[in-house]
Amino acid sequence: MRREMYIQLNWIGSTIEENKISNNIQAKITEKLNCEETGSIEEPVI
Question: Superkingdom of the source (predicted)?
């Protein structure tokens, strides 16, 4: 029982981390697209 709870908590933690990473990537892609639309010179590093 305890082991199952640990695994579940671990899974939730890693899912949250993955979401943070994918949100970060999404934000950078959006930023890049916005730069291309406005013709801005600044390009975010992906």
Answer: Eukaryota
